[in-house]
Structures are given as structure tokens and as C-alpha cells.
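Lecture 7, part B: from sequences to assemblies.

Below are the input chains for today's worked example.
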Amino acid sequence: MDKWTFGLTLMIVGIGGTFLTLWVLSLVVDVLKKFFPLSSGEGTPGKSA
Amino acid sequence: MFESIVSGLGGLTSGVAHLASAQGIPNLVMLAIAGTLLYLGVKKGVEPLLLVPIGFGCLLVNLPLSELMDQEGFLRTLYDAGVANELFPLLIFVGIGAMTDFGPLLENPRILLFGAAGQVGIFLTLMLALALGFPELEAVAIAVIGACDGPTAIYVASQYAPQLLGPISVAAYSYMALVPIIQPPIMKALTTEKERVIKMAAIKRSVSRETRLLFPIVVTVIGGLIAPKGLPLLGTIMLGNFMRESGVVERLTKASENEIANIVTLFLGLAIGATMEGNAFLKPTTLAIFALGFIAISLDTVAGVVFGKIVCALTGGKVNPLIGAAGISAYPMAARVVQTQGLRYNKKNHLLMHAAGANTGGQIGSVVAAAVMLSVLKGMGLI
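Predicted structure of the full complex, as C-alpha cells:
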């Protein structure tokens, strides 16, 4: 494989893979928020939870 | 008797004699560079936690005939113990995870995509490095400077281009410190006055404790399944964050973000400085690496802001494109830059929470980008 094929492959799959992974993670967070909604007792801002 | 006195004195003067000879010129130059790093760290406050030990390591290794990087030398022992096997950057990641609040990101999970846009510079720089003639794995290691993430750059370089570890590490940390100087002109050049003053809606608190607790596990599992070669990076940062969010191992969390991170930072800095021996460091490739690192971080910012403009257009002007610049891993510096720039154009515009979300997205994005890259390389049979 020549270096341009290597570079282009890594660029396309790399950018695509990074976007795809983070998009999937964002969807999963949405699902988590649906399954575990904020309860009324958790409304006060705290350090992290 | 006289001869042995002369021989003994020869032992005391051999270091000076070496420095004064032609062989000592690279060491002299590196001693000046060590002094510059120490000056930047101490006097200018540029990443002092890293630049001070790196500068001192550089100073130690360039004093001639000290044998600190020879087999069983003190610095070689540190290098072998934690850099050659990637242990130190991973331990630092546990601390970073323990220090990071992913709350703003979880409030608006789609902002994670800014963390992906902020990594585009890595891949564009890869092409530039290849065009300059760097071999494939060296080009990958140099491109990862664009992750704006010191431990990730060190992790990849120590594995696949250990001969470039010194310049890559120094470039990565130097440019991270220069984010407040590099980013604002790019942000201004790529946005209109109208875009820069867009006010974003306040973030409402909507994330439960369970979601915060499950998030690091989900990232570890999904990231690990998609890009298993990067699991050490993802796993350690998420371990730190899980300990933080669990709230039941406060001692371990505190140790990770304080004692362990501090000790490892010292050892890591010294070991990196030890790779900056004159003959190995003073090469044209070092200059090329510094230039490519600058380009990588600039391209990250360009990609982030352009992505911000696209999102702004798609949402009918609800997103300020400036927050795209925070999609890099330099945390919390990039978020602060966005906040400062937002206030500069509209004194009542507080973008900090949105930028913090994008910035923590950039932290995950940089690790995911490196993980994806390594897994693709593995898939191609190159590692």
C-alpha cells in the first residue's frame, strides 16, 4: 500500500470512526437519560452528582 | 604519583573538556533549550508541572559523561518503568478522569460531536506529515499532537515512534499552553459579527446520578468494542471518572487526582526530558514536528469552528459557532478561551457551560480518535 492510500484510508476511516463513535455515545446518553430521569430530589446543584 | 594526580584531575575535567570540544556543541545547545524550558515554566507559567521536570531532565541528560540514560542509569530506569511500557500516561489519565466533570456534556449529549470535529486536524496533519516524507507510524505519532492531549501523544509516540518522543511531547505541551494565543484569531477570521454574538439558551439540569455513574461504563464498553487498541486510554480515563461519580472511593479519587498524578507527572516529565539528548533531538525533523504540531492545533480549531457554523445554520442560529473551538482536549483552557471571546463580542454572553461541554467532549474525542486510529492501523496490519 502506498503512503497516500494509507493516509487517505486512515483519514476517512479515522474521521468517520470518531464521529460515528461519539454519535453512538450521544445516543446512548439520551437513552440513559430516558431510563434514569432526574428525580425531584436531585434538583439541587452539587459538586458532581 | 604525579601521573596518578594528573589522571585523577583528568577525571574532574573530562566533562568540561567534552563540552568545549566539537562533540559537546549539541549538548551546549540542549542545555540552552533546557534553560529556556525552565524559564518558560518558572517565569512565564507555561505548563510548569510538565516543563519544569522536562527541562530538568533535559539538563541532566545533556551534561556529558553522566551516564544517566545508560543501562541502569537513573533516568533510563524511570523511562523503562513508565514510558517505554506506556504506564505513566495511563496513570495520568486515571487522574484526568477523576478531575473531569462530564456534567455539561451529559446535559446536551449531542455536543459530543464538537469533540469529534475538534480532532479533524489530527487526520489532516497526518497527510501533511506523510507529504513531508515521514514514515507511516512516525506520521501517525506526529499527527496525534493535534489531539491537544499530552498523555495521548506520549502514549502513541512511545509505542510507535519512541525516537520522536522528546520533540512530540514538548510540542504537544507547548502548544496546549499556547491555545489562548493560537485560537482567537482563527475564531474571529472564520465567524461573522452576527454569529459571534449569538446567545445560547441556559443549560437546564437534567442528568441523574445513575446516568453520570453509567456514562463512564458505557463509554468504556462501546469505545472498547469499536476501538479495542485504544482501550487502555479510554479505560483509564473512565475508571477515574467512575470513581469520582461513584462517591464511595473518595480516597482513591483524591489519590488519583493528587498524589498519583503528581508523582507520575514528575517521573514522566523527567523521563521525557531524558529523551532530549543533543544528538537525538537536534535534527531537522524536530523543527518539522514543531511546525506540524502548530498546524494540527490550528486545523483542529478551524474544523471545530466550521462545524459550529454548520450546526448554527442547521439549528436556525441557536448555536454560537465559537463553541466549536472548544472541541479540543485542552481542558479547561479551550472552554475559557471561548468564554472570553464570547464576552468580548457581547458582554452579556456567557458561553462557558456550553464550551465546557464541548471541551469535555474534546477530551473524549481525542482519546476516541487515537483509539480509532490505532485500531485502524491494527486492522491494516501495520501494528
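Note for the exam: Chain B is about 75% helix and 0% strand. Keep this in mind when comparing with the next example.
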